[in-house]
Amino acid sequence: MVQKDFLWGGALAAHQFEGGWDAGGKGPSVIDVMTAGEHGVAREITSTIEADKFYPNQVAIDFYHEYKKDIALFAEMGLKCLRTSIAWTRIFPKGDEAKPNEAGLKFYDDVFDELLKNGIEPVITLSHFEMPLHLAREYGGFRNRQVIDFFAKFAKVVFERYQDKVKYWMTFNEINNQMDVNNPIFLWTNSGVLVEEGENAKEVMYQVAHNELVASAKAVMIGKEINPAFQIGCMVSHVPIYPYSCNPADIMAAEEANRQRFFFADVHVRGKYPNYALKEFEREGYNIDIRLEDLAVLKAGTVDYVGFSYYMSTVVKADARNDVDNNIVNGGLANGVENPHIQSTDWGWAIDPEGLRFTLNRLYDRYQLPLFIVENGFGAIDELENGKVHDETRIEYLSKHIEALEKAVDYDGVELLGYTPWGIIDLVSFTTGEMKKRYGMIYVDRDNAGNGTMQRYKKDSFAWYRQVIENNGLK
Ligand code: BG6
């Protein structure tokens, strides 16, 4: 059984559910120029907003205008917290303004007040895949050190404004996605960066990552000064990589591949670069601009907890070779192979609840900090029939993952702050831009092309999760 004040909640991200992309003075973000794709068809990043293209995040599920009704449903479900993000472009529409946009600040005041009134604690990510498009186009995103200061300023403004409403913060969502440089959407959404012809993508990525890690550490320092009671975490995607066999070559291949997963959290938590990364820079001849003053900032701005998403596991085999282009499922691993012991979702994501317990133990042993599962969920096609959605498979997926987390807490002694399943209400998929890849316990009548009434319906998982929260776990 988890502790009494365990944060059972739901997770969302501003750009995937708010809509209102140009309302209240909001500026365009990097996500507002991403078209819809589908499983196996990549989303396109257009240079401007083109009139004949469909950009699903611009309207999303229109929480911007419907937030009171949606929050009432979250309260009915019994959520103790809601993990969401602040759209940087509502606060600084272009990113480099001298003053913030009051209408944007007021919107989040209203949302947080409504949540708190309903007994739901906001858990906030500062940047979830949506830096201002202007910073990406005119400054080169996080390639440019000026963007560190723009981010720090944004962080300061929101920390000051919401210091009495929000306690749990995270800096950058899934900052480690960009380690997969084979798929352009990751560097673009994490950092506002596109790799140019002739550049070494990995070297660019490490430079951008460095600037972003410094920005994150600065934000932690600023936040702690404003309110020492803040709990500020990092947020990484954790996809454990298993060795294919007990062949020592597979074990070592997995060990090396896992470093790519740990790199960002290693710096966030330890406040310094791990030796394996410094050796890689040296070996590959990467010339990364890391200044002395940055090292001091990294050291001073370490995180209080590790937030992470968990959806699946992967496998590597030392002698396997893949076409890694655009392969989200194996995380761009050249030697990734399928796991013959487990099944996958329709989108090819391996379903592995035991892997969650494994991950919790690994992260806790490595960092000795409280953990927070801020995303986990089952993306699937749901059928609405007579106002009902029977999503037993989702219930089964989530039950098994909750069972695994309970075991990690009860049996292994992992310190876990909470669990916020992804997409508590249906929203736009990040990797594909689809609506039909649904995660929610609340169904939203909207399709991939933007048709539908936008009406909300409770799925079977709604009542099931309410019961879980009421019982403080599975009974
Ligand atoms: C995580 C992201 O990668 O996984 C979310 O933080 C995302 O933004 C979620 O939506 C699920 O991915 P997808 O592509 O199925 O929406």
Automatic annotation (TrEMBL):
Gene3D superfamilies listed in its UniProt record: Glycosidases
Keyword Hydrolase carried by entry: yes
GO molecular function, one term: beta-glucosidase activity
A Pfam family assignment: Glyco_hydro_1
GO terms for biological process, alphabetical: carbohydrate catabolic process
Active-site residues (renumbered): E375
Keyword annotations of the record: Glycosidase, Hydrolase
Cellular component GO terms, alphabetical: cytosol
NCBIfam families membership: PRK09589.1, PRK15014.1
Stated family: Belongs to the glycosyl hydrolase 1 family.
Protein name: 6-phospho-beta-glucosidase
